[in-house]
Specification:
The chain is mostly beta strands and 171 residues long. Helices cover 12% and strands 49% of the residues. The chain has one helix at residues 9-28; strands at residues 31-35, 40-42, 48-49, 54-58, 63-64, 67-69, 76-87, 94-103, 109-116, 124-135, 140-149, 155-157, 162-170.
Length: 171
């Protein structure tokens, strides 16, 4: 007989059921990864919504129309990441590249990063950002990019740039 320290078989069964429920919650958690299927043109010094159209994974079917939308009854803490490659279309022309997360169509950033090369312009720059945010059902997150070029011609965000996210915990 295995010593149980006074724990009953019913208590062990209840613990296993709860453990299975926790594991299932993580299996059912929403996660997605999308990429740009082609280059997105960006006007100079203008934030532009990126059209991520190639789904790599979308476990909860919550990514559509270039944005992630929190499904009903899925309030919680979410983590998002993006990695974009900015290109000024010519050498020594890119003076800054930026990525922003925006919530619910706002013009205000809820997270992001900008890299500035004004004293030494480059052609390409990879801009990567991660954020953790509390969201409720129907909230949505989009990614915007910004390019500033020395000759004011703008540039593009290259295909293969990515946007992803996952639910970390419930409400």
């Amino acid at each position: 007989q295995v010593p149980t320290g006074g724990i009953t078989a019913d208590a062990i069964d209840a613990t296993l059921v709860a453990d299975d429920a926790i594991r299932q919650e993580h299996v059912d958690a929403h996660a997605f990864q999308v990429t740009l299927g082609s280059n997105d043109t960006i006007s100079n010094d203008t934030y532009t919504k990126l059209d991520f159209g190639t789904e790599v994974v979308d476990t909860g079917s919550a990514f559509a129309s270039g944005k992630f939308t929190v499904p009903s009854n899925e309030n919680g803490l979410y983590m998002f990441t993006c990695s974009i490659v900015t290109d000024s279309d010519s050498n020594s022309n890119l003076t800054s590249g930026a990525a922003q997360f925006r919530k619910n169509g706002s013009t205000q950033s809820v997270g992001g990063v900008e890299t500035i090369f004004s004293s030494n312009p480059v052609r390409y720059a990879t801009v990567t950002s991660t954020m953790i945010i509390s969201l409720v059902a129907t909230d949505f997150i989009e990614v915007f990019a910004h390019i500033k070029s020395e000759d004011s011609s703008g540039g593009r965000v290259l295909s293969g740039s990515s946007f992803g996210g996952l639910k970390l915990a419930g409400a």
